[in-house]
Amino acid sequence: MSERVIAALDTRRNDQTEGWVFPSDSVTGHMGSVARAFEEAREAAGVSKEVVLYRARHTLATKVMGASGDLSLVMRALGHTNAQAAMIYQHPSLENVRKIVNERPQPASKKQGLLPVRHNPRHTA
Q1: Which of 25, 29, 100, 106 lies at a C-alpha separation of 20 to 30 Å from 68?
Q2: Is the pTM higher than 0.85?
Q3: Residue 102 to residues 67, 93, 95, 118, Cα–Cα distance (Å)
Q4: Are 53 and 38 in contact (CB under 8 A)?
Q5: pLDDT digits over 105-115, tens only?
Q6: What are phi and psi of 116, to 5 degrees?
Q7: Spatial separation of the C-alpha atoms in residues 90 and 5, rounded to whole Å
Q8: What pLDDT shows up at residue 22?
């Protein structure tokens, strides 16, 4: 959990040492469905129905993937056991390719106006 979530839960707990952090009037005495609670909170806040819990999860996973580049980290965070299932959070950017190419050192032959040196003589272009 992030430090913000831990702080929010501490505030929500309000020095309570027993019971549920999110109690309800249900048979179990606690909230049983995150999705239902999300819908109720969304409606109470007047947020559009277009904002759904899945999008929040997908956005989080996409941001973690973009910032870390670590698919196994995303898999662990979301509970995926199959890399293919977690790959939907990869959104490759051509800007990243451009940055990598631009950061690549320019060959000396290019700097001096000479023809490029081929790394493999079979390549003609």
Answers
A1: 106
A2: no
A3: 20, 15, 10, 19
A4: yes
A5: 776 655 555 55
A6: -65, 145
A7: 25
A8: 74
Sheet strands (E) in the chain: none
**Angle, alpha carbons 10-64-98 (nearest 5°):** 150
CA–CA distances in Å: residue 111 to residues 42, 104, 124: 59, 13, 20
Read out DSSP for 47-68?
A: --TT--HHHHHHHHHHHHHHHH
Nearest-5° angle of CA 67, CA 91, CA 72?
55
Tell me how long the chain is. Answer: 125
Give CA 38 to chain center in angstroms. Answer: 19
Determine the 3-state secondary structure of 89 from DSSP: helix
* Structural tokens at position 24: 């309800």
**Do 116 and 110 meet the contact criterion of CB atoms below 8 Å apart?**
yes
